[in-house]
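User: I'm putting together a teaching handout on how multi-component assemblies are represented. Below are the sequence lines for each component of a complex, exactly as they appear in our records. Could you produce the 3D structure of the whole assembly as structure tokens, so the students can see both representations side by side? Please keep the chain order the same as the input.
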Amino acid sequence: MAGTQQRPKPKVGIYGFTGCAGDQLLLIHTEEEILNLFESLDIQSFVMASSNPIEGELDVAFVEGSVSTEEEREHLLEIRKRAKILVAMGNCAVSGGPQAMYAEDGEYETRLRKVYGEVQFFTNPLEAKPLDAYVDVDYYLPGCPISQPQALALIGRLIHGAMPEPYPHPVCHECKLHENQCLLLEKKFCLGPLTAGGCGAVCPDHGLPCVGCWGPNSDGNFSQHLKLLESFGMTKKDIMRRIHNFGGYKILKHIENL
Amino acid sequence: MSDKKIITIEPLARVEGHGGIKVEIEGDRISNVEVQIYEGPRLFEQLVVGKTPEEDLSIVPRICAICNLSHKFAALRGLEKALGVNVPETTNAYRHLMHHGEIIESHSLHIYFLALPDFLGYDNAVAMADKYGDTVMKALQLKAFGNKVMRLMGGRMIHGENPILGGFSRLPTREELVTIKEEAEELLPFAMDTIDLFAGLEIKDHMERKTQFLCCKPPHDEYGYYGDALLTSDGKEHPVEDYKNVINERTVSHSFAKRSTYNGRPFSVGALARVLLLGKRLKGKAREAHDKLVNERWSRNPLYNNHAQAIEQVFSLEGIIETIDFLLDSETPEIAKPTRKTGSGTGAVEAPRGTLIHRYKIKGGKTTEADFITPTAMFLDDTEEFIRTCGENLLAAKKIKNIELEFEMIARSYDPCISCSAHLVTVEYR
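Assistant: Of course. Below is the structure of the complete assembly, with chains in the same order as your input.
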């Protein structure tokens, strides 16, 4: 087609901090799309997939993982300086991930010592935090792992210089579209109403309650859901513990008054 | 005057996770080798304390994306022992199907996309596509197939919640099983072509040295990826509950991955260890592949781990076909229930890159203690030793051009999973 080649390919860097590498892996797992991805982007740095990265100015940086060492914190600041757009990719980058489930409980040092003993490391370990604890984040791709369609839609929009759209729906929205029987009617511990959608309600589709792994949905009614779950005979302590498992830092503002 | 030279390879590319290699050279000898793990600690052993087994099962696979189902499987084996859950043989067969899927997903990613570019002289697999287009396309198909099996059994490609205590929430339909079996049959010739591809590769010998191997011993006479005993290359068998006496762990300052030795010396785990220790149990095409590739250099050369993975791809495709034949003739299994709320148990499986151990202590339905030992934590000492030998031999022969690539290829051959390795293991409380 005429006229499709004028726009230069956006320079992209894909980085991984502390996490399971699942969000980068999901990009690699796009199978037939990965060839298109390498074709339509100028991938400067994607260390998990390719040698000889080039670290310069970037149009878009995708960053997976929480910031969990001093070295990672410095690296993130450095990436932010040379990236026009920074995307937090996956729950660890968005909210801190499971390693941030005890966010701000003051016991991090104790846990670190229990696992590693008294060791001086080459870089200081830090309590896991999301990217936006240190830098401005332009877009968030939530998920544990992220969803391929959402990731490709975001990349597609950015390639064409268009504004990505937010997706403000809870898991319940997708669950309803799949016409699943609501697990809350069976008094099961389901976090669907409080959890960001995008996974395609994959757990309820398998007859399993949502564990909340995408982190909180911004307009979830936490106090009402807490009451509902308590009415199933669960203790507040058990409920709050589970809400924290994947909620990281982003859950804190939703539950501060509960 | 010191002529100390430091070679730093950072970042170590085409591995899962964030790491590097540092080699210090003084004169004609290597004074220090460090495979460094830069990812921060996640402290999973502490995260699960106070949780229910259901929560454990959704939290611990997050240690690692690529082998998330191995973590799920190891956790299930440990937790089910602790809680007295006895799953029927058919459920185990479904779990083997799931595990075969993961082995194919992980091995095909490593063989074609992370390792093969080195052997063929490219930066990445996409760059290979011009000349090796057919191989890359079929490799993508094979990897997609592994992912499909993982999605079918796990519930989604990565971090699916479908495997639960005592069984699976949803089992595949007959049609889904038949489709998977047919696809496995179609992919088998490509997996065998890969054996020929590997048979034609020239494998360098400058890092060769004698080492030790360890893997799970399957409870039957067949090749497999799980067991309740650990088998070592000195011919000994150790009950898996004794793992702490077999695998001696320590912390090192240059890595958030802990390190392990057996009998005070480094050892290797993974496909190479399994093929060397269990290869005589292989049958069918996998045995053909084994007999074609294995030679006496394998026990001294980690680059053959790539070849061993190629053999396991064949084994797992055949395993999927055989398992599905069994499942098509079987009744739907019941979900087995816990018989107690207090107990302890150790679960061991073979993750794609080696032995993976999960140990849990449960009291009144909540975890009080957990310990995870991942394969990368076991083999990193051995990786460093092979890099050292490689460096010393190349220095002696004055062949130091491209020495970085030689070091990287050794590290990559282990298919190190840095995400896993950075989140290890309890030490003794002091």
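A couple of points students might notice: Chain B touches chain A through 70 residues (CB under 8 Å). The radius of gyration of chain B is 21 Å.
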